[in-house]
Design goal:
With about 375 residues, the chain is an alpha/beta fold. It has 13 helices and 13 strands. The chain has a 7-stranded parallel β-sheet, sandwiched between helices. The chain has a 6-stranded parallel β-sheet with strand order 10-9-8-11-12-13, sandwiched between helices. β5, α4 and β6 form a beta-alpha-beta unit. α2 crosses α3, α3 crosses α4 and α6 crosses α10. The two termini are about 20 Å apart.
Length: about 375
């Protein structure tokens, strides 16, 4: 791609760079356009102390210092006004051509902060809106803000359709996450234990009810006795750790199910596993699903409302489980894949097509179509 002349300056606004899909996309987008010679600024509310992703050396970082949790009512309103004021002051000083808000609240704040200024604002949704837990005031603000944005980017066609119906007037674009290949390693490093002839079922994600790891443990409990050489590993951290560990212990699976924590070298775990499972009740567009397939793992995933069905080609390179959220159905499909290595291998050979389908070149070309439009 030739070096574009516009915009001269891209500003990305996000709450933090702690672990998460939108945070990783922020690091990827800022690095890509910085490499092409753009001036790129990343603005966060939280300090670098919470960072899970490093920024490109040419990307400038500004911290608003407004990350404290705001309560409802007057104090919450004042906290958000302070965020808008600080961001607006920064936009006036740095004069970006485009401000990219990452996720709902950052997008709304960006639209408000840039109101009347000579820059375009692009909003993004990284979670399927029906699964969000947003106060009513933010839902109203989204309906106000998004029609004023130059574009609203959804990760999936399903999310775009929802926005079209519930946030009328939004100018929508669908841009999936790109797969970084080869997958980079970072800290913390957790070395996968030797398998010694055993098989590994792998799941990766934040330990949160949305990820459905409780359903996964239930499904694995149903089939564990039939597959004594298989173990389940759940990589990640989150508020559900204690509840999940109690469930694992109560099921008598502590020797077969492990939760080592968050791994910066997740690529090593993909390469040393035999099957990938995505048990999410809801998804945006799963980075881990794309990464696992790019690494040559056959996937089994719940066919939730959005996400997996736009990645997995059911019966070709993976399995979509219906109904979503049904632990028995998940157990049945996992059992089938675990019992048939030839099917796993055939799906895995086709799964690596995601390297092209979600390549950086393709995805960044879509971003370029939005970012390079003249104001």
């Amino acid at each position: 791609m030739s070096k574009p002349s516009v915009p001269a300056h891209l500003m990305i606004f996000i709450h933090s760079l702690s672990g998460g899909g939108a945070e990783r996309v922020t690091a990827d987008i800022s690095a890509y356009w910085a490499d092409l010679g753009w001036k790129v600024t990343v603005v966060t509310q939280a300090s670098a102390d919470t960072d899970a992703y490093a920024l490109h050396p040419q990307v400038k970082r500004h911290v608003l210092g407004t990350a404290g949790a705001s309560s409802g009512g007057l104090s919450g309103m004042l906290a958000n006004l302070r965020r808008v004021w600080r961001l607006r002051r920064l936009i006036k000083r740095l004069r970006p051509s485009v401000v990219l808000g990452m996720m709902t609240t950052a997008s709304v704040l960006a639209v408000a902060a840039a109101r009347g200024l000579k820059c375009r604002v692009i909003a993004t949704e990284h979670t399927h809106p029906p699964s969000q837990e947003l106060p009513e005031i933010w839902l109203r603000l989204r309906r106000w803000a998004y029609p004023q944005a130059a574009a609203v980017v959804a990760l999936t066609a399903g999310t775009a359709q929802w926005l079209q119906e519930h946030v009328p007037g939004s100018r929508l674009a669908v841009i999936p996450n790109a797969v970084r290949w080869p997958i980079e390693s970072a800290e913390p490093r957790l070395e996968p234990p030797r398998r010694n002839g055993r098989f590994r079922l792998l799941a990766v994600g934040r330990l949160h009810p949305h990820k459905g790891f409780d359903l996964l443990v239930t499904a694995f409990q149903e089939i564990a006795d039939h597959f004594p050489l298989w173990d389940l590993v759940i990589l990640g951290e989150g508020e559900s750790r204690e509840a999940l560990q109690q469930q694992i212990d109560a099921a008598g699976l502590s020797a077969r199910v492990s939760m080592p924590g968050r791994a910066g070298n997740v690529a090593d775990w993909y390469l040393q596993s035999d099957l990938y499972v995505l048990s999410s009740r809801v998804e945006g567009l799963s980075n881990t699903l794309i990464e696992s397939m790019a690494s040559g793992l056959a996937p089994v995933a719940f066919d939730c409302e959005t996400g997996p069905r736009e990645i997995i080609r059911d019966g070709i390179d993976g399995v979509l489980v219906q109904p979503a959220g049904d632990a028995e159905a998940l157990a049945a499909h996992l059992s089938d894949m675990m019992a048939h290595p030839e099917k796993r291998e055939a799906y895995a050979r086709r799964a690596v097509d995601v390297r092209d389908r979600f390549s950086v070149a393709r995805v960044m070309a879509l971003w370029g179509n939005l970012l390079c439009v003249e104001s």
